[in-house]
Write a structure and sequence with these properties.
The protein starts with a helix and ends in an 8-residue tail after the last helix. The longest helix is centred in the N-terminal third of the chain and has 62 residues. With 553 residues, it is an alpha/beta fold. β7, α14 and β8 form a beta-alpha-beta unit. A six-stranded mixed beta sheet has the order 6-7-8-3-9-10, sandwiched between helices. Strands 2-1-4-5 form a four-stranded antiparallel beta sheet, with helices on one face. Helix content is 63%, strand content 10%. It is built from 16 helices and ten strands. The protein binds adenosine-5'-triphosphate. Adenosine-5'-triphosphate binds next to α8.
Amino acid sequence: MTAVMSGKIVENFALAIQAPAMKLVKLYLAQSVFTFAYIYMLSSVGERVAAQLKKELFASILRQDISFFDKHRTGEIVNRLTTDIQDFKSSFKLCISQGLRSFTQIVGCAASIMFISPQMTVGMLLVMPSIVVVGTIFGSVLRKFSREAQIQIAQSTCVCEEAISNMRTVRAFAMESQEQELFARETDLACKLNERLGLGIGLFQGGTNFFLNGLVLGTLWVGGKLIASNQIEAGDLMAFLVASQTIQRSVAQLSLLFGHLVRGLGAGARVFEYIELEPNVPLTGGKKIPYHSLFGDVSFENVTFSYPTREGQPVLKDFSLKVPAGKVIAIVGSSGGGKSTIASLLERFYEVDEGRITLDDFDIRKLDPSWLRGRAIGFINQEPVLFATSIMENIRYGRPNATDLEVIAAARLANADGFINSFPLGYNTVVGERGATISGGQKQRIAIARALLKNPSILILDEATSALDTESERIVQEALDQVVHGRTTIVIAHRLSTIRNADIIAVVANGHVVELGDDISLRRKRGLYWTLVQQQERQELEDATSNRPPQSG
Ligand SMILES: Nc1ncnc2c1ncn2[C@@H]1O[C@H](COP(=O)(O)OP(=O)(O)OP(=O)(O)O)[C@@H](O)[C@H]1O
């Protein structure tokens, strides 16, 4: 009998809880689905925002003037692309997820305490502005701390980035321990600044907690008085306390979030600082001279220029020089006289302060800079930089849509086809970072092929052979002699023996041309050119007798 009764009770109970249990299951299911959707959406939005920022930042960095790269170190720039964007993304996600929850809890509970006791709520609201004011002041101090810490982190990244990318030099000078010490110093400083930031955030959160607990005590005190005067009931005070405790927890959460927000805002500000930076020389826009009507007459007219990092110290002063189309002009002069600067200005890496530079009578400021650099001018310098990819792709960098046959033709013209084919993988040989796995002369010939692929009307050779030994110099020089035909060529040379056949030689000193003519006429003049030739011949003779390799300069 009892067993039957108890069976019935269980049955009734099961029936009774069936409907609510189903509701609960549905609720749990819905909660799981919402949790999944919210976490997935948040992470997806966060990742997309970060990826978009990264792309925009990189695009903006690529757009910047060369002077930007003179002023900022590589590590500092890379840090903004990596650490800062990561910090920004993490705090963005955290602030949205926790911030939204805390915010809605605060709003909901604020409405209910308002309903329970408007008097006590108004009292609470009256003390709130003080925390807002204190919080704002504290916040700006913390943001400053965060900025300083992030700058210091970037500084330590710079040290390690520089050491790693110049590992051969570090090893050759046995500077490992000094680099280690320098990195440790910078890292310790970053650590101290971060600790200071942590201390500030800790104080802020501790202070917030203290204030909120004070608020609970205050509520109990005021609530007790209201109960005594029969204005509210004990149950209302309890409900008020529970709701205000929820507000307190949410505000505490928000204050915890505040630290992340400070970091995120600091990082975001650093990212946007670069994104919003507008270069003086845009990458594109302006006239493009059609290839068939481009002659290649270059003229510098009364150019005055000082580097943006050294304003007030002009490198070129009222500098004028005409380079007729198709001619080879050599620019010589003492070291630091401004020869490479002339090439940089023609490439429009920097803007002239006064005067103008023209190409076929067009001011280069009116020409499309990408067309000027990418099509009209081929630039080969002393230390060609190759990328860690195949030789084929390195040469194709000169013109991305060139066919394999065109690449090979350019390599032949540059005297490079022979050695490339001697590698087991031929054009598919990967050259290592910065072309570390091939010789200087080979690197230079690949760089020449790369420049030739554009078929430029103007060729600038900035000390193109000065880093090479005599044999490699001869081979590269032969390649260069072949390729200068029919192009306006500006040769910047230390070794005067390599430019004897130039149509015009311009001797540059103190920022302007002091002598102009060909080798024979300039020697006859017995001026600066003659002195430089004499100095170099004496040097070469001394090198030969002492069996030392010849030195440039
Ligand atoms: N990016 C730069 N920022 C600031 N000053 C620079 C920069 N590049 C060169 N200079 C300075 O400008 C002056 C001319 O330099 P430039 O490289 O044009 O001389 P150069 O005649 O080519 O020298 P070298 O024969 O030694 O290569 C030098 O005093 C140099 O220190």
